[in-house]
Amino acid sequence: VAGFGGAAFPTHVKLSPPKEKKIDVVIINGAECEPYITADHRLMLEEGEKILKGARIVAGLLGVERIILAIENNKKDALDYLRSLSNGSIDVVSLKTKYPQGDERHLIKAVLNREVPRGGLPFDVGVVVHNIGTAKAIYDAVYQGIPLVERVVTVTGDVHVPKNLLARIGTPFSHLIEECGGFKGEAKKIISGGPMMGIAQYKDVPVVKGTSCVLVLNEQRVKIAEEKACIRCGKCIEACPMGLMPTVLAALVRKKSFDTALEYSIMSCDDCGCCAYVCPSNIPLVQLLRYGKVCSRSLGKESR
Known about the structure:
The chain has helices spanning 11-14, 39-46, 48-62, 76-86, 104-112, 132-144, 173-179, 235-239, 246-254, 258-263, 274-278, 285-298; strands at residues 25-30, 66-72, 91-95, 127-131, 150-157, 163-168, 187-192, 199-200, 213-218. The chain is α/β, with parallel strands linked by helices. The protein folds into three domains: 11-144, Rossmann fold, CATH 3.40.50; 150-218, Ubiquitin-like (UB roll) (Roll), CATH 3.10.20; 235-298, no CATH class. A hairpin with a 5-residue loop joins β5 and β6. The chain is globular, with a radius of gyration of 20 Å.
């Protein structure tokens, strides 16, 4: 079983915190990672009881009594339904709908007002976070003996009939798109994930454990803007939820000054894309920061 939040982090690692880390809260993440994605919302409405049982399994393995199920307030039906199922044994809390709240560091801050230190993990503040889909997969493995062979995928954008599909791991994107009536217009991009953090893919790429969404965009929605020089407006700094300086980091990456970029905490970037979204000069900030992190890892450098 792996995390369903996009990073596909191995679940057994989260269930095996270091002995010196005292875990007192389990948070089940019901905040969708990005706009367009509704897979978790659908899963909460259809498999709520299994999700709660999966959450209790996680708490039992960690020896934790407090379980919090965090759901954004634009999913009132899911909030009401899961509150009725939990009977007060699990705290089902409503969160303000905002991006990128699906990131576990921001979620912990919103729910518990605890801050994960830079370079740290939720373990450091006594928390383990699991996605809605992961909780369901844990239930399937323990109660039903079913391995992780399928997951819910949102297929949306410029397709004729957008849907949430229960897809087998390994199913090509093209099969899912066909199930949704095919392309609406000429597809310009097929994105694995959402519009902010997703990655453009070919239509025959398969569904993997971390595939939450297949987003189709036609030529009317995709505009390639010309990159211009940075005007030092500071909008990317204001937008960064991690308190970084994306324009400075991007310049360091272009100079291949990875040591200095590490000093400026490049590894704390969560790839949310807010910086690139607000940039009036159309600088591909998030792509540069992703590249910088990959290069830093390949050089064996560590976050500071």
